[in-house]
Amino acid sequence: MDAIVKMLEKHQPFFEKISRNVYLQAIKDGFLGCMPIVLTSSIFLLIATLPGVVGITLPQPLIDWCNKLYNFTMGVMGIMVAGTTAKNFTASMNRRMPAGKVLNDGSTMVAAQCSMLLLAVTQFTTKLNGAELSVFDCTSMGTRGLFSAYIAAFITVWVYKFCVSRDLTIKLPKEVPGAIAQNFRDIIPFGGAVIICGIIDVVVRNLMGVPFSELLIKLLSPLFTAAETYPGLILIQAATAFFWFIGVHGPSIVQPGIDPIRLANQAENLQVLLAGGHPAHSLTFNMSLVGEFGGTGATFIVPLLLILFMKSKQLKAVGKASIVPVAFAVNEPLLFGAPMILNPYMLIPFVAAGCVNVSVAKFFIDNVGMNGFSFVVPWATPAPIGIFITTNFQLIALVFVAIIILLDAIIYLPFLKAYDKLLCDQEAERAAELGLESDGAATITASTSAPAVEQTAASVEPTAAAADSEPVADQPEPAADASAKKDVDGLKVLVLCAGAGTSAMLANAIKEGAAQTGENIASSAGAYGQHTAIMDQYDVIVLAPQVRSYYNDMKADTDRLGIKLLAPRGKEYIDLTRDPAGAIKWLRENLD
C-alpha cells in the first residue's frame, strides 16, 4: 500500500497540472458564478410544487408566478454561463497577455452571450391573431445549451486575444475619454467573435438541419449514455475520490465536463415528475449528495465511527472536531486532520465508498421505484435531508439513506481500526519516551511529534511547485519577536477555497480571534474563481489547501495589487480553524 501511495505522490505534479488547466478552471468558475441562478430558481420551483405533496393546493396565480420566475432564471442559464465563463477565461488569458495589453472582460462577457445565442437558439416567425411575430425557441437557452455556452466563451476570448495582441483595433485620438475609446477598441474583436459563431451556425444548420447545440448533444449522446451506466457512474465517482486522495480537488477536474448533462438530466427528471411519471435519470447534478455523502470519499459516517470505535486520542479528537462540518459536506477537517489524504490505510475505503453509494442509488432508481433526483438543493445541505427533498419526499429515499450509511460504515470500519492500532502504538511509544503512564492512548500535545503517516500526508500537500515545476515561495518562519512583525489591526482578510465552505471555517476563526484580542480585523470567505471582482478590497488573501495549487496564478494578481498572499498547508490550516487566537498570531507572524 505504501508503494502505491509513493507512486501516486510521484505523479502528483501531473495531476496538479490537469487541475490548473485554464479551460477547466474557466468552466468551473463560470458555472460557480451562476449557482445563485440554480439555487434561487429551485426555491421558487419548490414553492410551486411541494405543497401538493402534502395535499395543499396553492392558488393558480401564485403557481404561475413561481413557474415564471423559474423559467426566467433557470431558463436562461446557458446564456448566463456563456458570459461568466468568458469573464473567467478572460482573467486567465490576461495573465498571459503581453505587457500593456489587456482584454476587456465586460466586452468578452457580452460577446460570448451573443455568440451563444447564435449557436444555440432558433428564430422563426409565426402568426398570432393575424399578426406575424418573430419567435425564439428557448429550449437551448437553459441547461441544454451549456456546451454551446462554453464553446462560444472560448471562441470569443481567443478572438479578442488575437485582435488585441496584434493591435487589430480601432484607435481614437488620445483626447477621447478612455471609456469611449475602449468601446471602439472592442468593435473589431466583438464583431469577429460574433461573425465566426454566426458562420458556424449557418454551416451546421445547412448541413445538419439542427442548431449547433443540438448537434453537440447528438454527437456526445453515446458518452452520456455510457456515463449513466453502472461502470460510468463508478468511474466518475472513483476519479473524483482518487484525485482528492492525492491532494488535488477532484470535483474541479471531473465535474466541469459532465455538469451540462447532469443539469440537463435533472431538468428532464423534473419535467417527468411534474407530468406524473417516474424520473429515471441517475446521472444528475445532486447525485453528488450520494457519491460525496458528507464530502468526497462519502465520509458522512466516519466522524461518528472515530468517536465511538477508535481508541486513539488523535482520531477521537478529529471525529469530534469534524462531525458538524462533515454533516454539511465540509470534510476538510477530517481529510487533513486524520489525515485521509495520501494515507495508505484510507485509499481503498475513500475510493470505494462513493462508488458503492452511486451503484446502490442507480439500483434503487431503476428497480425499487425511487425517483431520480429532480429538485436542486445547495451542495452544503446535509445529505440525508437533501436526498429526501430532491426525490420529492419519498419514504423509500430514507430507506436508501439508511442502507448507504450502513454500507459506508462497513467499508470504512476495518481500515479505520487498522489505522487506529497504528496510532495507538505510536502514542504509547511517545508516552513511554516522555515517562508517562499510558494505556496505549496518550494525549497528543502540541509539542508531540505527529504520527509518521500524518507527516507523510503533510509533506506531499499539493503545491504550486507541483503545478508549475517551480518552487513556491516558502511561508515565512515564525518570528521570535512577534512585535517586530506588521500590526494586523485594521486588516481585511479574504479566505478562499473551492466552494466557500472550508474558507468560512478559517474566516470565522479569524473573526473570533480578533474579538478575543481586541483587534480590528475584518475577514470574509469566498470561492476561488469568484474573487477577481473583490480581491482589491483586501489586504491579505489566504488560500485553503484545496486551492493551494493555484498559488502562482494568484501570486501574479496579488503582487500586482500589493496584497499579501498566504497558503498554509493542510494540517496547519485545520489547526488554525480550531484556534482563533492562534489564527491571529499566525497572521501577525506571516506579515512582513
Describe the fold and architecture.
With 592 residues, the chain is mainly alpha-helical. It is built from 26 helices and six strands. It has a four-stranded parallel β-sheet, with helices on both faces. Strands 1-2 form a two-stranded antiparallel sheet. Helix 4 (35-49) packs antiparallel against helix 5, helix 8 (146-165) packs across helix 10 and helix 15 (302-309) runs antiparallel to helix 16 (313-327). The longest helix has 39 residues, at 395-433. It is globular, with a radius of gyration of 26 Å. Mean pLDDT is 83; it is low at 437-485.
Provide a compact summary of the structure.
The chain has 592 residues and is mainly alpha-helical. It contains 26 helices and six strands.
